[in-house]
Design brief:
Immunoglobulin-like, 30 strands, seven-stranded mixed β-sheet, about 10% helix, mainly beta, flat
């Protein structure tokens, strides 16, 4: 009888599993080719899709493959095969314990631990082989022999870093599918300073430094971004890594002692040896000046809103003007600000084929009618052999700027770069052509609609003035004026009472002296009035006795209110 019942149960299982298999829903599927992180404090909480456990593959079964955690073969690793790899262990977790294979919602999760690490983009095929002699839930072979190709769930890993010239190349273990969000602030470099915008090509991220890397420089690079700025094609993002050594590939110092083939940055005035190369390197509206090495005193020039302006720059590059690849002209800088902080900037980029691209950064709509043109001319009138790239920028202003300093940034093919700042700079005057900015302000719980009248002032719909202070709009306090009292009755509240009182006092003195000439003299020894400044205040609420009385009175009042509201209840 027992044997008969067991046979029926086996047939039922066989029918169910066969139906699932024929219906296209095999009970086994391989999940992403990463491991849920080993359960120690160093990796706990890292979710699927950004794993660094490159010896693990996680498999999920829609039903239990062994009825208990300890059930099934002793050597569970032998029940699985991974193409090109050896399985050391197979850790199995089931969702039921002794409830049978067909329990509703039953699952099994298997973590395969491989003998050797696999590549971060590898997806080796996995097969559940299961020895037929082993008693397990899959004796009907519904899932035995099924193979799956897992999904890539491993993060790209740091592989190497090398430096040459002004470039540091950081190489990862697989291709980086950059979404254009990687920033220079994601990386930390020691031994030099990063600048510009990183670029991505294949598995390499290229970074630019401000100073030419020479033989003997010791550099390290670290990556600290946790929001997935660098990812592979399957959205597995690069995990942060601490300082890694950078291989210094700087050339042996050349015969001229410079340490590299091209170390000189382009210039608008003097070179690194303070020798004047360019005369009149910066000109604004026909007023030229000789650019110095970094900071150039420049008489304040006024530009009017709505009128056309022309800025001309002469840029010298020791390898020829065709090697100049980037130029930036930034307006409205305050003392201590860098070019990257400008809210009105015009940038010119020239690629290897000579194609010019103009980019305008103008979040406050301060610029208009921008036209950028280039040509090659002599850097100096007296020197026809020295050629410069001439960059002409025609433009208008739509609104005044907060500050006046202007700056330039230029770099060449080898990303040798230099910045110049000109102060006092350019002051933009005139009324803005842009519509006034509008805001909402809150005062005493009411919302007011504000229209900006200047950078820090505004008016609401009722004509009240507001000021922008401490990062928010605050309604200005207006002193209430005492109304003029035109009534004929003089009281202490009359607007002219004080003046009237003083007048009467002055009129009373002659009359007093007429009746009593010595009255005033008898009081000359009176001291001036004085008062005491109390250094502290007494707060009644600090008195326990008063607080106790207040509580008793509050209790009495509550009882009276209850009686008045429901007298029937208290009768």
């Amino acid at each position: 009888m027992k044997y008969y019942m067991a046979s029926i149960r086996s047939k039922v299982y066989f029918v169910v599993l066969t139906a699932l298999l024929v219906g296209g829903f095999p009970n086994f599927m391989a999940q992403e080719a990463f491991a849920v992180r080993t359960f120690d404090s160093a990796v706990t909480g890292v979710t699927a899709g950004d794993s660094v456990a490159d010896t693990n593959i996680v498999l999920t079964f829609s039903g239990t493959i062994y009825t208990t955690t300890a059930g099934g073969p002793a050597n569970k690793a032998a029940q699985f095969a991974v193409a090109g790899s050896t399985v050391n262990t197979a850790n199995i977790v089931t969702s039921v314990n002794g409830a049978g294979c067909a329990a509703a919602g039953a699952t099994s999760t298997v973590t395969l631990v491989l003998a050797a690490a696999i590549a971060t983009d590898a997806v080796p095929q996995v097969t559940f082989t299961n020895d037929a002699t082993v008693l397990s839930c899959d004796d009907d072979a519904a899932v035995v022999g099924v193979a799956r190709t897992p999904t890539d769930g491993l993060s790209p890993q740091f592989s190497s870093a090398s430096a040459s010239g002004t470039t540091i190349d950081v190489v990862f273990t697989e291709t980086i599918d950059d979404a254009g969000t990687v920033a220079i602030t994601d990386f930390t470099l020691t031994g030099n300073t990063l600048t510009g915008t990183p670029s991505v090509s294949g598995s390499t991220v290229s970074l630019t430094v401000t100073t030419e890397i020479i033989e003997g420089d010791v550099l390290t690079i670290a990556y600290g971004e946790t929001n997935g700025d660098l990812e592979d094609a399957n959205n597995n993002f690069v995990r942060t890594f601490t300082a890694q050594s950078v291989t210094n590939g700087a050339a042996t110092p050349s015969s001229n002692g410079s340490g590299c083939g091209d170390c000189e940055a382009p210039t608008l005035g003097v070179n690194s040896e303070s020798k004047r190369i360019v005369e009149g390197g910066f000109s604004y509206n026909g007023k030229p000046t000789d650019a110095e090495r970094f900071f150039t005193p420049y008489p304040l020039i006024t530009a009017t809103v709505g009128k056309q302006n022309t800025a001309v720059f002469k840029i010298y590059e020791d390898k020829g003007p065709e090697n100049i690849k980037h130029f930036s002209f930034a307006f409205g800088l305050d003392k201590g600000q860098s070019i990257g902080e400008s809210k009105a900037m015009i940038e010119l980029d020239i690629d290897h084929e000579g194609t010019e691209t103009v980019t305008v950064t103008d979040p406050e709509n301060a610029l208009d009618n921008i036209k950028v043109s280039t040509n090659i001319e002599n850097c100096n009138v007296s020197d026809s052999d020295t050629q410069c790239l001439i960059v002409t920028i025609d433009h208008k202003f739509r609104a005044p700027l907060d500050f006046n300093i202007v700056g330039t940034d230029v770099w060449d093919m080898q990303r040798n770069s230099w910045q110049n700042y000109f102060n006092h700079g350019i002051e933009v005057t005139g009324e803005s052509l842009n519509p006034a900015n509008e805001y909402d302000g809150i005062n005493a719980g009411h919302i007011y609609h504000l229209t900006e009248t200047s950078k820090n002032t505004a008016l609401d719909e009722f004509g009240n003035s507001w000021s922008f202070q401490y990062g928010k709009w605050i309604k200005d306090f207006v002193q209430n004026e005492r109304l003029q009292d035109t009534s004929s009755v003089f009281t202490r509240n009359h607007s002219d009472f004080t003046e009237y009182k003083e007048l009467q006092a002055q009129n009373a003195i002659p009359q007093l002296l007429e009746y009593c000439p010595s009255c005033l003299d008898s009081y000359t020894d009176f001291k001036d009035s004085f008062g005491y400044e109390i250094s502290y205040k007494l707060n009644a609420l600090d008195n326990p006795e008063i607080i106790q009385k207040m509580l008793l009175e509050n209790e009495r009042a509550q009882k009276i209110m209850n009686y008045l509201l429901d007298p029937v209840k208290y009768r």
